[in-house]
Amino acid sequence: MTASTKTLLETPVVIIGGGIAGLAAAYELQAQGVPYILLESSQRFGGKIRTEYIPNPAGEGRFVVEVGPDSVLTQKPWAVNLAKELGLAGQLLGTNDAMRRTYVLRNGRLVPLPDGVFLIVPTRIWPFIRTPLFSWRGKLRMALDWFIPPRQDEDDESLADFVCRRLGAEVLDRLAEPLMAGIHNAEAENQSLLATFPRFRQLEKQYGSLIRGMLAACRKAPTTDKRRSVFTSFRDGMQTLVDALLEQLNGDLHLNVAASGISWAENGGFDIRLSGGETLSASAIVLATPAYTAADLLRDVAPQVSEQLTTIRYVSTGTVSVAYPLADIPRPLDGFGLVIPHSENRRINAITWTSTKFHHRAPEGYGLLRVFFGGSRHPEIMALDDEQIFAIVQEELRDIMGITTQPLFSRLYRWSRANPQYDVGHLERLSTIEQLLPDGIYLAGSAYHGVGVPDCVKQGRDAAGKLAQRVSLLTTS
User: Fold this and answer.
1) Which of 287, 316, 424, 449 has its CA 20 to 30 A from that of 403?
2) Are 24 and 461 a contacting pair, CB within 8 Å?
3) Per DSSP, what are the bridge partners of residue 369?
4) What number of CA atoms fall less than 13 Å from residue 144's CA on the CB side?
5) How far is CA 266 from the centre of its chain?
6) 191 three-class SS
7) DSSP label of 74
């Protein structure tokens, strides 16, 4: 082992960013025996994952209000697996699937999504024939999916182009855009199919038809998978996962410490300039930050990577959570909520009926609703003050659901430049970034290989695993 290698090994690994990806990276490094320092620029760990507990202003009990994500997708197992490793199996809370129903706003009316739809593809034909959500012309156009030949090349395309090509414009407007683009807060016309929903292209290629492929996949699915909740959370909210991670981590964790730049160190590692003027040496770095922050930090050591990272767009979003006695809500909360097509010209994007979607979110006899706004559809709303946004939310709830009373409470949360956009060509951009990234620097987070909590957990742990292998190679060299 050379002197420079020994010096490098004595320099700590530094994780920049204390959201769920950074915490997962720290957890994995700790499991593999690699010392680390974690820097978070804000006053709390967990990033967008945060839960508030609000006492019932009108009586007993409490409301569990999510500031950020309210659940994790069970088909992506990485967050659930981490929760089980942390001893949280008994805290996992599936959705209230006896009430699993989603509505679509159509001409101002709530129309239930047809039974058997998986994202945008029917797995049961008869409910789609009967639904008033689509015209007969739209249903016949959808049926042509059985006969349209599959695309043969490997090129990316937008979600809008794919859905229109396979299923028609009505499916895009009334189903795909509000359901799927809403997951990413993206414009369907720009959203990369291969980066966000690659399974659709795989089904098209394998079966020649989305509908035929989805029907075949449902027949092959184990019975246990068919009964499993699509989403899961925790009895006390998503904050449970962050708190459990923090209890396990014994590394050097710092809040209110921001990095301002990275440069090469003489020992082959890196010097990290901190906002307070200090410099911290690192043998390797995990950047678990937004892409634009990573771009600023990498400007000196990897200018080409920095330039590529700046091309990843972001949008800002927000939510308003409101609570009412059920007696003040004219219609039953008999589902998980509603999505709103862009063509309805509403100023909000969707409403989750939180107290129905999950148990233990509101006291008995009360309803908790969560209204989504901003994003690609209405970025101008993000510039309004809180009172203006509250007024919009109340007007929309009155028009859509008939609610005329004042809520027991309301909570507004804004996320500025929080949602990365996976535009067409996203995977090609990532390939370029990963090829140019300097040895010893790793990226993790929602800007790269998936926006959900499970994706971020996986990316954080994967980055830490690669880093641990690098440390092992240096040790044996």
Assistant:
1) 316
2) yes
3) 322, 353
4) 16
5) 39
6) strand
7) T
Tokens at 361, concatenated: 């979110």
- pLDDT, tens digit, 9 for 90 and up, residues 403-417: 999 999 999 999 999
Residue-wise pLDDT for 105-159, tens only, equals 999 999 998 887 777 777 777 888 889 999 999 999 989 999 999 998 899 999 9
- Paired tokens of 318: 């927000």
Nearest CA among 293, 300, 291 for reference residue 270:
300
- Which CATH code for domain 113-223? 1.10.3110.10
Domain residue limits, the chain? 3-47+239-312+422-476, 51-99+313-420, 113-223
Q: What is the pTM of this model?
A: 0.93
CATH among 3.60.15.10, 3.50.50.60, 1.10.10.10, 3.30.40.10 for 3-47+239-312+422-476: 3.50.50.60
Q: Alpha helices of 191-259 — where are they, by DSSP H?
A: 193-196, 198-207, 210-220, 223-227, 239-248
What CA–CA distance (Å, rounded) separates 66 from 372?
A: 12
